[in-house]
Task: structure prediction
Amino acid sequence: MTVRKYWQAVNDALREELARDERVVIFGEDVAKPGGPFGATRGLREEFGASRVRDTPISEAGIVGAAVGAAMTGLRPIAEIMYFDFITLAMDQLVNQAAKVRYMSGGALSVPMVVRVFCGAGRGSGPQHSQSVESWLGHVPGLRVVAPGDPAEAKALLKGAIRSPDPVIVLDSSRLWTKRGEVPDGDVVAPIGEARIVRPGNDVTIVAWSWALSRSLEAAEKLAAQGISAEVVDPRSLNPLDEKSIMDSLRRTGRLLIVHDAVSTYGPGAEIAALAAGPGFGALRAPVVRLTPPFAPAPFPSHLEQAYYPQPADIETAALSLVRG
Amino acid sequence: MTVRKYWQAVNDALREELARDERVVIFGEDVAKPGGPFGATRGLREEFGASRVRDTPISEAGIVGAAVGAAMTGLRPIAEIMYFDFITLAMDQLVNQAAKVRYMSGGALSVPMVVRVFCGAGRGSGPQHSQSVESWLGHVPGLRVVAPGDPAEAKALLKGAIRSPDPVIVLDSSRLWTKRGEVPDGDVVAPIGEARIVRPGNDVTIVAWSWALSRSLEAAEKLAAQGISAEVVDPRSLNPLDEKSIMDSLRRTGRLLIVHDAVSTYGPGAEIAALAAGPGFGALRAPVVRLTPPFAPAPFPSHLEQAYYPQPADIETAALSLVRG
Amino acid sequence: MTHPVLTEPAAAADPVAKDRDALLALFTTMTRIREFELCGARQLATGKLSGTLHLSSGQEAVAAGVCHLLAGTDHVTSTHRGHGHCLAKGAAPDRMMAELFGAGNGYCKGRSGSMHIADPATGLLGANGIVGGGIPMAVGAALSAQVRGTTQVSVTFFGEGATGEGSLHESLNLAALWRLPVVFVCENNGYAELSPVADVLAADSVAKLAAPFGIPARTVDGNDVVEVVGAAREAVERARAGHGPSLLEYVTYRHDGHYVGDAQSYRTKEERAAWAERDPLLRAAERLRALGFDDETLDAVRADATAEMNAAAEWAAAQVPAPASSLTTDVYGGLS
Amino acid sequence: MTHPVLTEPAAAADPVAKDRDALLALFTTMTRIREFELCGARQLATGKLSGTLHLSSGQEAVAAGVCHLLAGTDHVTSTHRGHGHCLAKGAAPDRMMAELFGAGNGYCKGRSGSMHIADPATGLLGANGIVGGGIPMAVGAALSAQVRGTTQVSVTFFGEGATGEGSLHESLNLAALWRLPVVFVCENNGYAELSPVADVLAADSVAKLAAPFGIPARTVDGNDVVEVVGAAREAVERARAGHGPSLLEYVTYRHDGHYVGDAQSYRTKEERAAWAERDPLLRAAERLRALGFDDETLDAVRADATAEMNAAAEWAAAQVPAPASSLTTDVYGGLS
Ligand SMILES: Cc1ncc(C[n+]2csc(CCOP(=O)(O)OP(=O)(O)O)c2C)c(N)n1
Ligand SMILES: Cc1ncc(C[n+]2csc(CCOP(=O)(O)OP(=O)(O)O)c2C)c(N)n1
Ligand SMILES: [Mg+2]
Ligand SMILES: [Mg+2]
Result:
């Protein structure tokens, strides 16, 4: 175990994978000479050369499209999109191309690529740099989406993504970017599609990922002090979603609280709640609660952001009223 | 009342709105001289002139972006995107710009524009021309999304969209394009955000829109013959969703079946099911069922399309087993 | 821009002009493409096939001429009008036809249809239903070749309508910055769906779009296969030698509508007739006759191709349709 | 491309060079922009403000010079580095500052911050956090003017980094096809975030990108406000007269980092020092002195601007923060 910051864990994973597999290449805006807009690729160009680590123009569609073509022809590209909001510019290449190439070609072609995306929620970045639109990508057959919740996960899930035979979008959290955590030594690779129970409990299931996961864990701590035992489940992978683990937890607790930083309507929590209303119906003892920002763009000033994103106290209150009825 | 085909009703609405309000302009690929790739704009350039009805290059981002700017500065633009799948190329302008301009400017600016989109589901158009991604747009605060289910609706909802102070995406159905229906005479404008009960019933609520609505109505007819009374609800507007009407119906029937042509996971039905699991929980007497294509891209040959999209018989079976338990 | 007509021969004709074997092979490829299209249209007309077909009749010289210079390991991305590129790159007409029929042993297991045919064995990365969609992918394939240190060349075919898409310009810039071995091949057939190029492109020529990025570009008669090969040879050799991208604008014409069934009210019979006279097959046949080939030989090529395509269609029609169970296969390659 | 340095004066100087009032007004606008930026940076440094600020110090001549030619009814779209454009177009510094402070009476009710300031009353359609995002919107505003039959002109400011985005090229084509009254104004400051322009643009100049579309374009010294006005006058007049779009590439430099706090390891002190000598304020002051203005006058302009911005910041800091209740207002304009 070594203590690493989230971004350092990302950097470690990239370095190790570049060293392990010469097919791995990295490109994106400011990722090479500058070492990444947020430092994720620091030192990699120096270590692995200008051919494998490249700066690109500000061309999100071109970047992702080039990654698709490179992945189809023998490389394992990692493309970086600077903010989640900018994925809007690459949706054709992600959705109409990357996601469908394997299916459309009847399995003859594949797109083993990774798109690393920085999610700006909660950092005062304002309405065009704070969005969480993971449910869009979760809705696309052929894509995989993971959202690491701590440094160890950031490293292991990124490795899993790089080794995946399919296109994987890795959502990094800006709010967790400088958070420290223990990272296991050695080549630890997380499977894609398996949730983890971060904190076991009996009274209520809280499903959360990324930054919302850490706020949920804070809330769970305080709930414990009040005698309420919350089980906190981190799906880690949003596509595919580990339905079984989430439904198993619901069967144990009978109550479901979903917390996320995307807006609620047609958001990722809707799918989880829908599972509870479908296969989980028999286990459900109370209405499912989704705790999310209101249906509005993200504001920039920190006092409004505080009000916009559900805080630990809000999670605590929601869980309390869910359990006490 | 006049009998019109769906596309003729669209054409009528466009003509009447161009005549009513000189701020209305139309542009898109092949919409002017050719009269529209599918005929929706037939005759409009001749009648209203080359300034107000324009052909554009194949530039989805540029088209929608120009519509945003035009809408901010005094026009009421109607932009056409040839297939729903191509909206991927305009997502930045739709999501980061059109949807947020009013909010970001503190209400000082607005974007009263319409994007007409042709949804190719069920017409043998294959994986890149058949997608239904309305849940993406429903997830975006600031956008409105409507999906007309018959000629009368096509006309009235389009008129409502054109007169909306906000950006509205109007999803036209390729499968209903040549279907006939009675269209009320006169200037009938549908409100945006109100569902309609297309067929009242007591045993089960079926929520469906667009092409899936007509298949659901077929199924409801057959269910009636078996003594089962299905209430068929057409949300018409997916953003905002008329939660109240849907939950009221659920309260009457206790059972909810959602049918749509988008894939299930993180799809539009998830939001409706989530409402049932939340505010509707007390009324729910059985697990919510979502009947949708499998989690895969749309195939092109008609025999596979038949298997891909839930057919009336599938809807009937699902409703039967939901009611009979 | 307006759609030009090019009939001036190139200054120095490509050696292929005198190469009897090569020219016959080119004529054969072009004829096979034509016959594939005709056969496909017949299947539609007789109701054996349904769906949308975009035929490339009239544009065969480009596909044949460019692919003539490519190895099987070179990569190609194509468009909605891709049958010609597929055949020229080496795809088998029977499996292509099977794909049109929705048969399980079509190139895409019968699920994708005409607009998505892909065959990695011949370097074909796929036709594409998204205008401009294949262009950045070809840049990526060129990047791949460069990083892996091979001499593979990547070619992206697109119509002049794709100049409206930002993806082309982003790709040109990226390819130039990285000096990638990619050839941008535009088939300027004068129309994007129902709109003439004058209505959708402000530039005088497609070739001019490459200039800002320092990418060499030429506008070439796309209906003379010798001209096509000549320009492509330069570009492919440049790419293979590591000297970076090129853009070729081939001026051509589609004999048929945008899709089979298009009423073509946007153009005149006279225009179509004039271009019919510049048909690439006629012109290639003329060149062959000048080299001493007799009509009998050329007729035999045509007859063989007709027979080949009819056989392909017959075979395809007899294949097992893609089973419903295949609806959900090949969505993913497996869990990590 | 490499980032050029332009110091040659234009052949015929714009009349503004001799217009004492206009030149003083331009100098005043530029000084106010500079002082706004300095004041904003001070607020950050003293912890009164948090968040990201992109300062335009060093680039003031472009904003001031171009907007000098615009009426209040003309439209402008701006970028993440937009304070200068806002001020030059007529926005009030106190309400801008209030926006930076997240105050309820900021231009956007305090919810959006520096990157999104909009003020329709002065024709300002908004700064924009998306590189290239404002460009098609300006084309749309020009379309609106054309359809409504006004003589309004639309200007879109963007950095040279935006040349990487397809939206620029789509917009150039559309503007040229429709002969729209739009001026594309690129501030080429040599860097896109942390990357020099040589790494992100294959073209020799940004101006060259307009050529394929037949759009007149010039590369101009962006640090001499007289040069800026001269080139802009031509372009704005062309647009207003209905003769279509132009592109202006102004070569300039940002004195500060990409954002306040940027360590700027990607460029040398020497380079920064050399550009400091070409500071647009210094050069405008020189011109004013040559017209007979004394240092006292110029110092007074500066002192007034400093006082104005300090007062704006003080006022802003004292305003009521945007209330949480405003989180969900202005998302929609109402049900149809
Ligand atoms: C992104 C996108 N927009 C629009 C279309 C619809 N469409 C299909 S083909 C076509 C015209 C293409 O013209 P061109 O590129 O000249 O190719 P051609 O058909 O002439 O071969 C259009 C607009 C599409 N398939 N993809
Ligand atoms: C679509 C998009 N991609 C990336 C970014 C991140 N970003 C913000 S500013 C910037 C550089 C812009 O450079 P330039 O256009 O030259 O403007 P400058 O900062 O020099 O004024 C980048 C990459 C963004 N805001 N939007
Ligand atoms: Mg064409
Ligand atoms: Mg710059």
